[in-house]
Each structure stands twice: as structure tokens, then as C-alpha cells.
Amino acid sequence: MPYFSIVIPVFNKEKFVANTLKSVLSQTLTDYEIIIVNDGSTDNSEAIINSFSDDRIRYFLKENEGVAVARNFGIDKANGAFVCFLDADDFWHPDFLKTMHGYIQKFPEQKVFACAIEIETQNKTFPANYSIAKKGDFEIVDFFDASQKECVLWTSSVVIHKSVFEVVGNFDTKIKKGEDTELWIRIGLQYPIVFIWRILARYVYDQSSVSRNLNYYFEPYTFEKYASEEKKNPKLKQYLDLNRFSAVIKCNLNNDWKTAIEIYKEIDLVNLSWKKRIILELPPIVQRGLMNFKKFLTNNGLGKSIFR
After folding, report:
1. Rounded to 5 degrees, what angle do the CA atoms 297, 301, 305 make?
2. Residues 263-304 pLDDT 10s
3. Distance in angstroms (rounded) separating the CA atoms of residues 249 and 294
4. Which of 32, 104, 217, 232 has the least CB density, counted as fewest CB within 10 Å?
5. How many CB atoms lie within 10 A of CB 224?
6. 10 Å Cβ neighbour count for 303?
7. CA dist., res. 26 & res. 48, Å (int)
8. What pLDDT was estimated at residue 293?
9. Residues 9, 95: Cα–Cα separation, whole Å
10. Is the sign of the CA dihedral 211, 217, 219, 222 positive or negative?
11. How far apart (Å, rounded) are the C-alpha atoms in residues 179 and 173?
């Protein structure tokens, strides 16, 4: 049985998937299986995947049902003790699995591990900015405390013991926007995170990626799932309010005033910085200008994120 199961969902990633697979096949630790789930790609992704020949690759082609279904399909097929996810436009540095394995051996009682990442834009590559006080080579952190800036968990940097999914469940397939972050919330409510400061994974900032689309934000359904829990958990409430802020802005920019008002009513403004409180009150045309400015900063590795 492999030690790691690496789940790679693919949908129309012909420009990226070869580099992603090469980064896995270049790992210095080799005890793994690769589960590629082609989620109904219509480009040349399948031909590129089939050009790789390795006994550790398990390839599945299915109809397009979305990334949450594809990842869950991979989890169900996984034979390894630990499950990793790698998006088909991201990649790992060669010692990703070896380093993770070392920390798993060091902390056998822990179930969730993650590393720092770097972000590649069209102009620059730079390290992600975390809300964690660095005290050593690693920290054992609370998810909500550690995710006030960049989320401490990210699909291409996490390693999760398979038993965790039996406790918290898989990706919620009803969620089409932010399904990964919603799973991290469930994990964060149950488990501490072993966060490793060494940068071992790279997020490739694809301008066409859904995660950078104005339509990518928590839907009302996601907030409703935690309506009872957030009343008794201040950290969860603050984290959800940060995501509500982002959702309101993006709803405004999509002229979805009804949803924006619905979500705004649930925000406790005390949980937002003064800057975010001001931005909420600005006209959409100004918010759009700030969004474009934020994209400029991101592409150049400058400043902090305006929108969560």
C-alpha cells in the first residue's frame, strides 16, 4: 500500500498538467500513488496525461461534475494512509513529500499537515503572507488564528490522514464556490494544523482560473451551514465575517444587490478592520477600481490583499 495518495483533478489544463505531473514524479520520496481524475476535459489534457508512463499513475476519466465531485472521487479511490491534493496548474518542489513524511513521523498523533507556499504571477514569484508568528521551523496552529491573511490550508499544500474524512466528511458537492475553504473550516473545528514554514509548493496564478473569478465567493448556503456553530465560536464567526466581506464586494460587482444585502446583514463589523468597513460602504464603481488595483499589486507581489 502506498504511504501517500495524490489526488489531481483535471479540467482543461493542457497548458499546465505536464509540469504538475513532472513535479510529482520528481519527488525524492517515491512511496505514493497518483490518482488523476479527468473531470470531462475537452482540450488536449488527456493526451498529455497519457504521454506519462509510470506504474504509480491511476487515471480516471469521468463526466464533468465539478472539482468537489472529482476530488471526492479521488479520495474514495485512495489507498494511502495520507491524502494529498495537487491542482493541475500547481506544482511541488522535489522534497515536498519527503519533508511531510518527516513531520508525520515527528508528530504521529497529528492528522493534518501543511507547508508554506509561494505564488507565481505573470510578473513575479513571491511567498504567501500568513498571520502566524514565526517561532521556529514549524508551528502547530489553530486554523482560524492562522488564516487571517492567506489561508493556512490550501489544496496543493495539505497532507491529510484519510481518517479525517471519516470524521468531517468530504468536499460538499452542493457548494460550487469555495468548496475547498469550507472543508478546511470543518477540519479546523476538529484538528490543529502542523504548519511547516519551508516553501514546498507553488500556486500558479492563472488569470482564467475560477479561484480568481469575481464569481468565486462563499454562497449563502455555506454561511447557513454554520449559523448555529458561529454563535458559540468567536473565531469561526470572525473567519466567516471576513468571507462575508469578500462575498458582499463580489456580489456588488456582479450587480447581485439582493444577495449582497442578505450577507451584509449577518456581518459583525467589529470583526472587520477599519479599511474593510470603509470599503463596504463605497460605491461599486470604486470597489471595482480597488479590485483592479489589488490585481495589479498581486501580479507584482506587492501589498496586502484588499479582498479576501
Report:
1. 55
2. 999 999 999 999 999 999 999 889 888 888 877 776 666 654
3. 13
4. 232
5. 10
6. 12
7. 17
8. 82
9. 22
10. positive
11. 8
DSSP string, 128-158: ---S----SSEEEE-HHHHTSSS-S--TTTE
For the chain, the residue count is 308
Main-chain phi, psi angles of 2, to 5 degrees: -70, 155
Buried b (16+ CB within 10 A) or exposed e, 101-117: bebbeeeeeebbbbbbb
C-alpha cell read off for 102: 518527516
Residues of the chain with pLDDT below 70 are 206-216, 298-308
Give the angle 196-89-67 at the CA atoms, nearest 5°. 90
What H or E segment, with its residue span, contains residue 84?
strand 82-85
Distance between CA atoms of 97 and 60, rounded to whole angstroms?
A: 23
Residue type, 253: L
Report yes or no: 200 and 96 within 8 Å, Cβ to Cβ. Answer: yes
Q: How far apart are CA 125 and CA 143, in angstroms?
A: 25
In the beta sheet, which residues pair with residue 37? 9, 60
pTM of the model: 0.91
Quick check: 99 and 199 in contact, CB under 8 A?
A: no
Question: Which cell numbers hold the place of 229?
Answer: 456553530
* Rg of the chain over all Cα atoms, to the nearest angstrom: 19
Q: Are 223 and 244 in contact (CB under 8 A)?
A: yes
Residue 166 to residue 145: CA distance in whole angstroms: 25
What are the backbone angles phi and psi of residue 286, rounded to the nearest 5°?
A: -75, -40
Write the CB contacts of 216 (distance below 8 Å, at least 6 apart in sequence): 177, 178, 210, 250
